[in-house]
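subagent[fold] <- orchestrator: predict structure for attached chain, return tokens only, no commentary.
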Amino acid sequence: MAEVLTIAEIRQRHADQWVLIGQPQANEAHEVQSGQVLFASHDRDAVYRKAVELRPGRFAFVYTGEMPADVAVVL
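subagent[fold] -> orchestrator:
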């Protein structure tokens, strides 16, 4: 079983990457607080493809870097 990491540990180990997190734990604002890193890459599409391949039951995508000014996040 994969190691459960806090979001701070995930950001430290996978700086400036897109991260697929399994079994995420979130706070009341739905911000990821911890989980299991299933895959990480600088290529967002590679992370999406891995999610399709693995088909994790509960998961979240997190980008650990600074979002570029021309990127919009839609929830």
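orchestrator: received. Logging for downstream: Residues 4-63 form one domain. Residues 22 and 56 are 7 Å apart (CA to CA).
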